[in-house]
Structure formats: C-alpha cells, structure tokens
Amino acid sequence: MVDVILGLQWGDEGKGKIVDYFAPRYDIIARFQGGPNAGHTLYVNGSKVVLHQIPSGIFHENKINLIGNGVVLDPVTLKRECKTVKDFGIDYQKNLFISDRTHLILPTHRALDKASEKAKGNEKIGSTLKGIGPAYMDKTGRNGLRVGDLLDKSFTTQYIKLRLKHQKLLDGMNFDEDISNWEEEFFDALEFMRQFQVVNGEYFINEKISQGKKVMAEGAQGSMLDVDFGTFPFVTSSNTISAGVCTGLGVAPQKIKEVIGVTKAYCTRVGGGPFPTELNDATGEELRKIGNEFGATTGRPRRCGWIDLVALRFACMVNGVTQLLMTKADVLDAFEELKVCTSYKIDGKSVKEVPFQMTRVAIEPELKSFKGWKTDISGIKNSADIPKAMREYVSFINDYLSVKVAYISNGPGREQLIEMK
Ligand code: GDP
Ligand code: IMO
Ligand code: MG
Predict the structure, then answer these.
(1) In this structure, are residues 104 and 73 in contact, taking their beta carbons and an 8 Å threshold?
(2) What pLDDT shows up at residue 174?
(3) Whose CA is nearest to atom 11 of ligand 1?
(4) DSSP state of 382
(5) 209 — phi, psi (to 5°)?
(6) pLDDT tens for each residue of 297-344
(7) Cα–Cα distance between 395 and 16 in angstroms, integer?
(8) String of DSSP letters for 114-142
C-alpha cells in the first residue's frame, strides 16, 4: 500500500522532517511531483540538511528512494545533493532510483523562468527560478526530454533542437544573459547521472507493492500551490495534492491508504499571491523571527500569518486527508493570544469556501481568538503533558476540520514529535 505525506498550506510545513521521521516504517520513499523548487529540511545526527531533489528517506539504510515520473529533475542540483548525502556516508548509488519517464530541467528552462518572471513585472509569481514552470510546460506541450532519453544516441540532437526553440523564445523576451556556464555544468551533471539506477518507475513500484512492500509518497510544495486547486496563478506547475501520487508514480488510486496532511500551527507563504491571514505587523514579524521563517531554497523571508481553517478544510477535502500532523507548535509558545481564521468576509458576506480566484476580491479573514499557552512545549514527549490552552486550540481545529491532529511536532529535531492520544 501507499501512504502519502503532503503539505496542506503554501509549502514549507515541515514535510522533510516528518518524512524522515516516518521513513523507518516504509520500504520505499518516493517523490511524485515538483523539483528543486522544494527545500525539505531535516536533521541528521544533529546536522541540518536541506534536500531539494532527493527524497527525504535517503538517510535511512536499506530504504529505496525513488524519483518518480511526475518530478522534474535538474541534474545539476542532483549532482550537488548527492555530494552532500555522500558526506554523511550514504551510498546513494545503492538507494536512489530514478524513473525513466522523469522530465529533465534544462539550463534554458531556468533562463525562461527568469525571463518570464521579469516580463510579469509587479505581477510576478515569485518563482524559485529553478525552471519548474517551463519544464512542466515542455512536458504538457510534448517537447520535453526525459531521463530515459539520456541513454539514446539521439539525445544531443534532441537537446539542440529544443535549445534552439527555447533560444527563439528567449530572444523574443530580450533575455541576453550568457548561460554557457549553466550548460557546462549541465552536461557535466549528465555524465554524473550515468551511474544511477534508471528504472521503469511504474513497473518498479507496482511490483514492490505486490510483494507487500510499503511505499511513502513524499509531497513537495503544498495544496494551496497546486496548479488546479491552489491560488492560481500564484501556484507551482504541478499537482501537489494526493491525486498527483497516481499520475506522478503510476499507482492506482485504490492503492493509496493514509493521506497524512502536514500543517503548521500557523501559516506561511513565500513568493507572491493571496494570503488572507497574513500579518503585516509586529506579530507577523515575531512569527518569522521565532519560527526562523526564511526559505530553505531561496533564503527569502517567508510571509507569516494565523492558521487559515477555511483553506485547510478545503485542502483536507481535495486530498482526502485521513490524519493531520501539526508542526511548529512550539513557535507559538510565547504568544499571549492566538487567532484562527474560521471564515472569509467577501463583499460583506461571510463565506467558508475558498473562491476560485483570490486576487480580484478583497478577502478579510474572520478570526476566532484563543488564549496562548505560554509554556515551553519543546521538551514534551507525551500528549498527557500538553498544556490545557494548547489542547483547546487543537481540539477546535479537530472539530472544524473533522479530521484529527494525530501528531504534533514541537521542534525541528527528529525526535520532537508528540503522538496525540
Ligand atoms: P518542508 O519544505 O515542508 O520540508 O519544510 P522546510 O524544511 O522548508 O521548512 C520547515 C522548517 O521548520 C525547517 O527549518 C525545519 O527544520 C523546521 N521545523 C520543522 N518542524 C518544526 C517544529 O515542529 N518546530 C520548529 N521550531 N521547527 C520545525
Ligand atoms: P517545499 O516543497 C514554499 C512557491 C514559490 C512561488 C511559487 C511558484 O519546500 O514546500 P515555482 O518555483 O514552483 O515556479 O514557484 O511556488 N514555491 C514554494 N513555496 N515551499 C516550496 O516547496 C515551494 N516551491 C515553490 O515561492 O511562490
Ligand atoms: Mg521547504
């Protein structure tokens, strides 16, 4: 069977830590979408590691880590990351598998991303500039190159053809940067990639499932960045929700069992786009400071605000979330008062549904207030020791979402996770 761990907000919910924590219970950890726009932080023997392209199960011995067909892969990032992983004594050659259907991110995809963002001016998405959008456009536009193509004699010809096409687009956008060093790195990384176990991902994973092996699908980004259900157009270019597991790995829907949705105890977003509960004040600043809310991929400050239950309930619905996992609860320890958004006020009306577009309407969050717990919770191991005020906060969220918070994360460390009993 396949369980899924994914983010329910705008990314950076702490998926990396959670996947790393649960990895020992699985045989295969698989990424099914996204690419190096992801930055998943975990701690290995007390040292911080940020993974962008490799699944977060890589630090566990004898676990298969699969980069699925739904991912877009930048060979340069992969090469760099393999070095990091190797420095921790991990034999990535043994544990890392890549689907032959995985699309490649080319240097010109990165250039196109940059040019496209520049052309948007004030309306830019705030992309990570990793070439994600252009790479997925070439996939759906039926032009892209895939990992399996690397083994074909025609690869260089295909590459040149696509590169020329991109160059025309770049010329039209007045992009005049020299990307020859990106290309040099890219070809160097392609050589490096020859050592990998490239597999027919869908047969590979289905065979393992029929042998009774357990798969964990690791989401990247968050549900509100999903290309269909997120705050379009301020989204990423893949399906980040649980349905993406089927298309991104080639597993059938009935194989999916638990959908573990990860949410912060508050909310953050990096890049542009609507964020109804955003706090542009001292409280927001405090959340950013205590939560150390700076992007793991780009280092940009993350926008901070209260937890948005309207968006969360929507995310639980489209994902079929079976269990919730609340991270960074410790960040709220010092706050006198906490707030949660229970509805949006749009055109004078109170609504509990996420509208199809959130950029052309003024959305005012309607907030319910809670007393802060004012206790250091970072050392708590048992749910019985959770402060009463925190229990009330969590219990309200459970009831609102009709899904239970099954775990609370109370610090970045691997062991800082409380099972709610
Ligand atoms: P991801 O993209 O969902 O994997 O999340 P990121 O790694 O981008 O961002 C989450 C950040 O929060 C990382 O710096 C983690 O080390 C940190 N983190 C995760 N869980 C907790 C937690 O429960 N408490 C605190 N204080 N930090 C956490
Ligand atoms: P993880 O997996 C947070 C955001 C970008 C931008 C928008 C589109 O670490 O949670 P893209 O580069 O995909 O074209 O950018 O999506 N974004 C993320 N925000 N966490 C991520 O990944 C993100 N990946 C993309 O900031 O607003
Ligand atoms: Mg992240």
Answers:
(1) yes
(2) 95
(3) 14
(4) B
(5) -65, -40
(6) 889 999 999 999 999 999 999 999 999 999 999 999 999 999 999 999
(7) 25
(8) HHHHHHHGGG-----SSSHHHHHHHHHTT
pTM: 0.98
List own/partner pairs for 85-93 with CB under 8 A and 24 or more apart. 85/49, 85/54, 85/58, 85/59, 88/44, 88/45, 88/47, 88/49, 88/59, 90/58, 90/59, 92/54, 92/58, 93/195, 93/196, 93/197
Asked about 109 being catalytic, the answer comes back as no
CB 135 within 8 A of CB 72: yes
Helix orientation angle between 75-87 and 180-193, rounded to the nearest 10 degrees: 60
Taking CA atoms only, the protein residue closest to ligand 2 atom 11 is: 127
60 is catalytic: no
Residue 329 one-letter amino acid? A
Which tens digit of pLDDT belongs to each residue from 264-280? 999 999 999 999 999 99
| Partner residues linked to 346 by β-bridges | 349
Name the catalytic one among 12, 20, 138, 226. Answer: 12
Distance between first and last Cα of the chain: 25
Question: What pLDDT is stored for residue 323 in this prediction?
Answer: 98
- Which residues, listed in sequence order, are joined to residue 46 by a DSSP beta bridge? none
Name the strand (E) or helix (H) holding 397: helix 388-401
216, 255 Cβ separation under 8 angstroms: no
d(CA 240, CA 7): 8
Percent of the chain with pLDDT over 70: 100
Q: What is the mean pLDDT of residues 122-140?
A: 97
Angle at alpha carbon of residue 232, lines to 121 and 242, rounded to 5°:
135
Residues with CB under 5 A from ligand 3 (ion): 12, 39, 296
| C-alpha to C-alpha distances, 152 to 142, 148, 155, 156, 349, nearest whole angstrom | 18, 8, 6, 9, 59
Task: Give residue-wise pLDDT tens across range 218-242.
Answer: 999 999 999 999 999 999 999 999 9
**pLDDT tens for each residue of 165-179:** 999 999 999 999 999
What's the CA gap between 21 and 56, in Å, rounded? Answer: 9
The pLDDT confidence band at residue 284, using thresholds 50, 70 and 90, is very high
